[in-house]
Amino acid sequence: MPIVQSAITVVLFILILFAVVLVHEVGHFVVARLAKVRVHEFGIGFPPRARVIGSDHETLYTLNWLPIGGFVRLEGEDGDSEDERSFTRARLPVKIAILVAGVVMNVALAFVIFFGIAWLATPLAKVTWDEVQPDSPAATAGLVAGDGLYAIDGRTFDYFAGPEPVIAELRANAGQAVVLGIVHEDGSTADVTATLRTAEEIGPTKGALGISGLAFAPTGDYIQTDPLAALRLGAERTVSALLLIVGGLGQLVTSLVSNPATAPPVTGPVGIAVAVGDVFWQLGPIFTLYFVGLLSANLALVNILPFPPLDGGRVVVTLLKSVAGGRISVQAERLTYLVGFVALFGLIIWITFFDIVRQVGGGAAP
Predict the structure, then answer these.
(1) For the chain, which residues make up each domain, given as ranges?
(2) What is the Cα–Cα distance from 225 to 231, expressed in whole angstroms?
(3) Closest CA to 321 of 78, 104, 31
(4) N or C, which end of the chain has less CB nearby within 10 Å?
């Protein structure tokens, strides 16, 4: 069974990566076509080419052997073309719009996923604990280690919001009697009334309920949310995902500068594939879809970085060429992209090495 699961995980990871990257390339393609820039090829997957699946007399639509996304081949994208409809002859705003369109599409995909989950299938959460403090409201109410709290006065909690709203709700009702929705270790549920500690009694080691060793987990139940509230949640979670990735990139830079011999605080393709498998098999499809949203936001933010040959790097080069006029040669531009690609590929190899070390060594790293 582990072999079958591993095979399914690999296929699932490839499909997810394929979809997220393809959405990115669709953004470039659609904006280029709307701007009348000549698109020679829209490829599904990466070369070598398997077959041509269609043509509209200007653009070839191809299927390629490597199922890891796609690509758009524009006339003059390498900076050398006399075609009036080439990318290099387009106006500066058009060039920028084409370059950032993929990033916009990935952010939009993340938002749509987060919105859809919030609207149609919000997973509910429970807080469990491994210790009940003596003489606490929890002990008085008969709660024991291993119980879980899934509702307070009938209010349930969104898993993706984290445990903070649960703790905040308990503190907001300090000194009051509340009805706790409790799930026991055997799966049975009960409504338990507890009078919480007062605000004066709450301290660094004493919470409102009197439980410790907390863990946060999904209950396995889902609810629907009002569409307007779901829109707000979708936007908030898209922003949160982007900020989370910014923090991760900052940690990566710090790790590279301070001690490149240690394991980086991020994962590469191998680590992401393992994470996809863990989420899918342990938590299910809704959580896997949420993970896809995080990956799409990640791809958006990484691509907008001002580093050749990423989209952000191409934007910077395009702006520099606009300022410098013809003083930046095509050869210099190509060399910039080549050096950037080699550096980026080296970074991926470095991160992947530690991904493999983690898996082989059970989390240990040199």
Answers:
(1) 2-120+244-360, 123-223
(2) 10
(3) 78
(4) N
